[in-house]
Design a protein that fits this description.
172 residues, globular, 4-stranded parallel sheet, 4 strands, alpha/beta, 15% strand
Length: 172
Amino acid sequence: GRSARSVTLLAWGAMVHISMEAAEKVVGMGYDVEVIDLRTLLPFDIETILASVKKTGRVIVVHEAPRTCGFGAELAASIQERALLSLEAPILRVTGFDTPFPYTLEMEYLPNVGRILDAIERMRAVLGNTHRARLEAWRVQGEHAEKVDWPLDAGLAGLAFSQRFADAQDRR
């Protein structure tokens, strides 16, 4: 079942092996990790991804490219567009750095098992239904929603705003 120790790792290419190695390390610590090898990026298997997201509630995307404008952002957007309320935590990315690729420092630049393990541990720190409770607080507080403490992803804040806007339109 879904727990704070369930997570989906999305990877492709060389990062699949690194992700599998990280998953093997945490399984013994009680984590339930699903590693999905995308194999193709266009088209990518959104149905398999969504099924896993609905099962685990947490996603980490691992890729070699820089974080900014990397394909991980497209995956995160696609997941949030289709399964936002299935997420128990913001989607994290473990990527190359936003620098020119340093051929002589390749091993420092590329994602590694340690960086994936750090992301898994950060993911676990976001407990269960925290975002759902805060989304409900936004809905209940209506016009005073901006005063609710909201440390998570701004996408959920946008969803709450959109819902309040839609509710206001329905009352007209």
